[in-house]
Write a structure and sequence with these properties.
about 120 residues, Ribosomal Protein S5, domain 2, about 35% helix, alpha+beta, 4-stranded mixed sheet
């Protein structure tokens, strides 16, 4: 069983982020914003994270990123294949514990119709 978030499951390059930002569908709430773009013919759903310095110092930003990666890893089997998603953390995300952050992320995914059975 794959425990990590491998390179093929991440949006990594600047051009990939720009393509998602320019052509993707946006949904947001108070603490997170989600931009999603379909990649027809691709198997993997990929995650990109954007956490600016407005969220807090490096320790806080890294904690938010670790939590979001873990939430994605745990729910990955539920996602439709071939999607690129970029999660943009807003400053209120720094105050959320794991549970509320997970609820916020999953609500945005439902709103964007990213799950297989939705």
């Amino acid at each position: 069983m794959d425990q990590g978030l491998s390179r093929r499951r991440r949006v990594r390059k600047n051009g990939e982020f720009l393509r998602v930002y320019q052509s993707g569908k946006r949904v947001s709430d108070g603490s997170l914003s989600l931009v999603v773009l379909s990649r027809p013919g691709k198997e993997e759903t990929r995650l990109g994270l954007s956490v600016s310095r407005k969220v807090g110092p490096a320790v806080v930003r890294n904690r938010v990123k670790r939590r979001l990666r873990e939430i994605f890893r745990l729910t990955r089997p539920r996602f439709k294949p071939g999607m690129d998603m970029v999660v943009v953390a807003k400053p209120p995300a720094s105050n959320l514990k794991f549970g509320p952050l997970q609820e916020s992320f999953l609500a945005l995914c439902r709103k964007a119709s990213l799950f297989l059975n939705a």
